[in-house]
Amino acid sequence: MTDAPDSKPVQPEDALLAEAAPAPRQRSRWETAWRELRRAPLSAQIGLIVIVCYIILGVFAPVIAPYPENELVGSQYEPWSDEFVFGTDQLGRDMLSRLIFGARNTIGIAFVTTILAFAIGGSLGLLASILGGWADQALGRAVDVLMAIPLLIFALVLLSIVGTSLINLIVIIAVLDSTRVFRLSRAVSMNVVVMDFVEAARLQGEGLGWIMTREILPNIMPPLVAEFGLRFCFVFLTISALSFLGLGIQPPAADWGSMVRENATLINYGDITPLLPAGAIALLTVAVNFVVDWFLHKTSGLKE
Amino acid sequence: MNAVLRTVLQRLGLGVLTLFVVSIIIFSTIEMLPGDFAKAILGQSATPETVAAFQREIGLDRSAPVRYLEWIGGVLQGDFGNSFASAGALGGGQERSVLSLVAPRLANTLFLAAMAAIIAVPLALALGMLAALYRNSVFDRIVNLTTLTSISVPEFFVAYILMLFLAVKFPIFYSLASVSADTPFMERVVRCALPAMTLVLVIVAHMMRMTRAAIINLLASPYIEMSRLKGLSPSRIIYHHALPNAWAPIANVIALNLAYLIVGVVVVEVVFVYPGIGQLMVDAVSRRDIPVVQACALIFAIAYILLNLLADIASIVTNPRLLHPR
Amino acid sequence: MNQDGQETGGRSGRRGDALLEVRGLRIEGESDEVRIQIVKGIDLTLNRGEVLGLIGESGAGKSTLGLATMGFTRAGCFITAGSVVFDGVDLLKISDAEKRNIWGVHAAYVAQSAAASFNPAHRLIDQYSETPLVHGVTGESEAKSTAIDLYRRLRLPDPEHIGERYPHQVSGGQLQRAMTAMAMACGPDFIVFDEPTTALDVTTQIEVLASIKQIVRDLNTAAIYISHDLAVVAQMADRVMVLRYGELVEEGATGEMLANPQHPYTKSLWAVRSLHKEEEPGEEVLLEVRSVDAAYGVAKVLQDVSVKVPRGRTVAVVGESGSGKSTLARVITGLLPPLTGEVSYEGKPLPADLKSRPKDLLRRMQMIYQMPDTALNPRRRVRDILSRPLQFFHGLTGAARASRVKELLEMIELDESFLERLPSELSGGQKQRICIARALAAEPDLIICDEVTSALDQIVAEGILKLLLRLQDELSISYLYITHDIATVRAIADTIVVMYQGEIVQQGLKHEVLTPPHHPYTDLLLSSVPEMDTSWLDSLLAERAARKARGETVLESADQ
């Protein structure tokens, strides 16, 4: 023992053979986070800055955007000018303003969907790993079957049936994507469930709620957080793809995927305007991926 | 060989079972249709008689299990029923079978997917293995950043960039991939160049990252360390010790990415207005032409399940523990 | 090939000449972007035909050092200083291609996990022949015949055909010997044995030790034998080096070192367990297991098991892996309801399933685990870990709970400074003490101890055992102590239960079980435990051979 008080009988363990116990760290969480951040690779730092910019744009969209979201302020497809920095779209709305409002709509919807997917998949995954037995089997088989149909295809089928409203879109994508969350959370939670401290809690008679939230959840947060980033990218891309196909977020809401589709014809005239919303999507997912990549690298302790 | 055969048969059985369940799911989505669906399809002016006739036509007057058996029986014989799009012109217009819509487009999609796969698979495997062998080198880092970027980018972004540069600014290829049944083979290849390139770019990134991870995982095995300590050359270690154990992970990577290709094809076909099954499905969804949607979904699901099945079988028949049971 | 051992020494030297000289070797490992020193300036000399034992506990850097003597480092490790001169060549200064001419031919390696170190895709014989063929030492048919010869010398069953098998078709102990044969394929001057028997059971270990010892002696190969088990090294090595935290603690001839260790750390390793508890038969039976059968699915793991645990006494359950001793604990705690039979507590039958046991019964039976690392939630601080059972079982809150937590810490000889620590900020022994305190917090009558000291370094384990004995004295707790380690049993048990393949083969008071005549399996188990005596293995083998010659049946490990 490194710091046993004097009054204790001196153990051989204490005296000459002090074990190399790591000294308790005194740094606060924020200090540690800040230190890690400064040591992070350039790609992750750039990624974080980009994400923060997007969040600011989304939150303060009405303040930042020069024109309202859906007002016709010019004629169709006006070129880039001082008045309309990125020109106007197929109806004559300001492209820049719609891009800024798009940040709010597109990211917001993808974020809500991802949270829903995590709430469903995460809790079921945790439950399956703790309960084991037939509950685990049943959930596992159900997920296997749902995953046997490609997500975008399944989403298309369901959207053709229930129609393309915003709520439908969010619920369908969240439920389908929750299968992937289920797989991961079950797998990582399984690694924790087999640990002795969980068995100790069970032997103590602790309830399901305690075991889930106090014993397991804190120990699987890092992989879940990383997965949240990845799933967000996936959901974001899927919703954008659906919007691009005309089956996702419906007009007149400003949304990047739809904006690409609405203005796509401009490409044929060598105009890069339709690439702007596409690029906005790409930049955000790249940024998130860079941050997640670094985070995974940090938390897994892997050097590969 | 008995154990291998038994495991393969088990896996095949499971595959058939999955297909069966998936077909039930796809079929039963129609049960979720809202009541006023017929009106939505036939238009507000539809008379009660036409609505009743339409409902009889799609069989809503019979029980679901009966209709499923009829449907799956037809599907097994290549009959997917009739498109709703023709139902609107009930009586007057000509009925179009789903099969006649799907078949030519399926051929087009398979052509495009095959073209992309033939380029992407060898390229990705080679790059992935190189990155694994020279991991943490400058080459590996550059490859890592590039692929991380390109897997994060939506397909339509890649597609439009290629279109902008290779068709509009420098008119090398066609910006629209319009082909028909009598387009000659070489002409077809040239017209498909941009969509195929888009798919290749997206798939290669995914696939080489997975290949790299699988190979690195393999090279971390103690038996690889042992083979180094036996003084074997790197090439012998790769060919003799790593490769015989690499088939299963590699087959998995290929299957996963070809399955990804299936999804990617939908968006890419729409961008390049390519008459494939993906575009057909998207059109059918916006017209709510359920029989066509179901047929397309079933075809996509079959392809997806089949690919995973093949990967599983590949890993079974290369598993020494099954090949040489105790 | 010097298969018959007549050419004493290697190509260019005689027995006794220095074959390997390591000077000032420093190795750093990179973890989490921080470099830590693993080996801190080691000098080492190995003569031809000599076996050097490397002793040390986990984290001593002995494996890293062992590999480095072949000029090999694992990914993430870097040699920062020093030289490794093997047969006149500094292995740290030559290219990989040059090293490949040495590896496998002149220097070979035997790894801890044979199952993982054989390529699953190739036959044993092909993996054997690979080295001589690739290095052009022998042709294929010659390689095959030397393989069969080595397999025979290593006492593998059916030496003519065992090479035709794939690694997964051969048992662990046999695979370990097949790997030794593979290392010997080119008749190397030098072999590194990296804990070759650590993963094996004691009765299997004997066979492997005996065959390795004999073949190294016969072929006059120099070897570095790495182990954490002193008694094992005492059988194998001529000379011993003791490592701790990457530094050399002491070095000397094995016999001398055993007789007269100098450094306090060495003494602590050498000291035979100073603990000895006088056995006392118990009066009142606290827990009774009556003719229990249990199974995982269809695999039956317990057959008609009956055990009594008296109040305030220690019952030690001894057995090898697969004997069912941990399953017995699972049945008692209710994690695995038995097929037939029952468990009763203070004479009253216990509900078979954990979920139907009342809270107070759960409180009275606590468990301590083998791995303190996994037995504590890494995200909870010591204060929370100890407070929870106090609140859960006794409804304690606020100041009463806080003062009880402090009392508990005192009982396990730790102070208040530990309250805010996370498990990752504790050493192995401290973690195990916290586990004990957590069990004590419930104020139990019975604690089930599942191999609680086997993951700990010897000296730390001793402290834990002393603590357990003191607590038993003060609080009159019963222990059901599960272990494979006979020395621990001698130290703490009142009664002993010997298990083998799911059945109890013998049980009784400590002196009854430990003094002959034993049940044949108890005899095999007891006699297979290595002793701190350089001649132990030789005399044991001689004795077993003599008994066989006299026509007595000698039980052998399941591996043969």
**DSSP helix count of chain A?**
12
Radius of gyration of chain A: 25 Å
- Unreliable stretches of chain B (pLDDT < 50, length at least 5) are 88-93
Number of strands of chain A: 0
CA(first)-CA(last) distance of chain A = 36 Å
User: Which stretches of chain A are low in confidence, meaning pLDDT under 50 for 5 or more residues running?
Assistant: 1-24
Which outline of chain A best applies?
globular
Q: How would you characterize this protein structure?
A:
The complex is a heterotrimer of chains A (304), B (326) and C (560). Chain A is mostly helical and 304 residues long. Chain A is globular, with a radius of gyration of 25 Å. The two termini of chain A are 36 Å apart. With 326 residues, chain B is mainly α. Chain B is 75% helix and 0% strand. In chain B, helix 1 packs across helix 4. About 2% of the residues of chain B have low confidence. Chain C has 21 helices and 20 strands. In chain C, the strands form four sheets. Chain C has a six-stranded mixed beta sheet with strand order 6-7-8-3-9-10, sandwiched between helices. A six-stranded mixed beta sheet of chain C has the order 16-17-18-13-19-20, with helices on both faces. Chain C has a four-stranded antiparallel beta sheet with strand order 2-1-4-5, covered by helices on one side. In chain C, helix 4 crosses helix 5, helix 14 runs parallel beside helix 16 and helix 16 runs parallel beside helix 17. The N terminus of chain C is likely disordered. Classes of the chains: A mainly alpha (304), B mainly alpha (326), C alpha/beta (560). Chains in contact: A-B, A-C, B-C. The interface between A and C is large, with 34 and 56 residues.
In short:
Chain B has 326 residues and is an all-alpha fold. Chain B has 16 helices and no strands.
How are the SSEs ordered, and which strands pair?
The complex is a heterotrimer of chains A (304), B (326) and C (560).
Chain A: H1 12-15, H2 29-39, H3 42-59, H4 61-64, H5 95-131, H6 133-147, H7 151-162, H8 166-193, H9 196-204, H10 208-244, H11 256-262, H12 275-300
Chain B: H1 2-28, H2 37-42, H3 48-57, H4 64-76, H5 84-87, H6 98-133, H7 138-152, H8 155-169, H9 185-191, H10 193-219, H11 222-229, H12 234-242, H13 247-271, H14 277-287, H15 290-317, H16 320-323
Chain C: E1 18-31, E2 34-47, E3 51-55, H1 62-68, E4 77-86, E5 89-90, H2 96-102, E6 107-110, H3 114-117, H4 124-134, H5 140-153, H6 172-183, E7 190-194, H7 202-219, E8 222-227, H8 230-236, E9 239-244, E10 247-253, H9 254-259, H10 264-270, E11 285-296, E12 299-310, E13 314-318, H11 325-333, E14 340-345, E15 348-349, H12 359-364, E16 365-368, H13 372-375, H14 382-394, H15 398-411, H16 428-441, E17 446-450, H17 458-475, E18 478-483, H18 486-492, E19 495-500, E20 503-509, H19 510-514, H20 520-528, H21 536-549
Parallel strand pairs in C: 3-8, 3-9, 6-7, 7-8, 13-18, 13-19, 16-17, 17-18
Antiparallel strand pairs in C: 1-2, 1-4, 4-5, 9-10, 11-12, 11-14, 14-15, 19-20
Helix pairs in contact in C: 4-5, 4-6, 6-7, 14-15, 14-16, 15-16, 16-17
